[in-house]
């Protein structure tokens, strides 16, 4: 099974997934996928497998990715060799959810927060102007219909959000 983690910018996906990874480290049925991204490793963000665009394209052509997509000028990929019988967890783009569901059992874990909380978190990053933040939050695409979705509200302390994510993951049969 694949758990595709999605949510708007500022929802705290990376923070909550890092906490869930630590909390579930002793439970072998949970596998947190390292994505391949055409972004240098030193650029920060999630721990990813950094590839050049040419290397990514070569691996894609060789069938190394179960899913791949382009966003924000970068290519992202999920490896084709996911552990069988595991709960495989990865941040995904909404644009590949339907393709993922067509290829394998998929549960969407949508991490979200109220608009005011999202706006405050994005403003605290200091990377965008207020108008850009408002535009970013307004363009959130809906989830494709017919998918199994579990929503986790991340509107409080990090520990509370991590507990909610871990509970959602442990509830998977």
From TrEMBL:
This is Ribose 1,5-bisphosphate phosphokinase PhnN. ATP binds at residues 7-14. It comes from Belnapia mucosa. The gene is phnN. SUPFAM superfamilies: P-loop containing nucleoside triphosphate hydrolases. Keywords: ATP-binding, Nucleotide-binding, Transferase. It catalyses: alpha-D-ribose 1,5-bisphosphate + ATP = 5-phospho-alpha-D-ribose 1-diphosphate + ADP. Signal peptide: none annotated. Belongs to the ribose 1,5-bisphosphokinase family. Its EC number is 2.7.4.23. Catalyzes the phosphorylation of ribose 1,5-bisphosphate to 5-phospho-D-ribosyl alpha-1-diphosphate (PRPP). Residues 1-173 form the Guanylate kinase/L-type calcium channel beta subunit domain. Pathway: Metabolic intermediate biosynthesis; 5-phospho-alpha-D-ribose 1-diphosphate biosynthesis; 5-phospho-alpha-D-ribose 1-diphosphate from D-ribose 5-phosphate (route II): step 3/3.
């Amino acid at each position: 099974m694949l758990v595709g983690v999605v949510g708007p910018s500022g929802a705290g996906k990376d923070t909550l997934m890092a906490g869930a990874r630590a909390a579930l480290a002793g439970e072998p049925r949970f596998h947190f996928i390292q994505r391949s991204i055409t972004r240098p490793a030193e650029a920060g963000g999630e721990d990813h497998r950094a590839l050049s665009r040419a290397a990514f394209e070569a691996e894609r052509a060789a069938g190394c990715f179960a899913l791949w997509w382009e966003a924000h000028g970068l290519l992202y990929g999920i490896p084709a060799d996911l552990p069988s019988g595991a709960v495989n967890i990865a941040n995904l783009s909404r644009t590949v959810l339907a393709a993922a569901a067509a290829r394998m059992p998929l549960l969407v874990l949508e991490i979200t927060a109220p608009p005011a909380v999202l706006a405050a978190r994005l403003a605290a990053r200091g990377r965008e102007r207020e108008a850009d933040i408002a535009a970013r939050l307004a363009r959130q695409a809906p989830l494709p219909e017919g998918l199994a979705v579990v929503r986790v509200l991340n509107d409080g302390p990090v520990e509370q959000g991590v507990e909610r994510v871990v509970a959602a993951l442990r509830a998977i049969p």
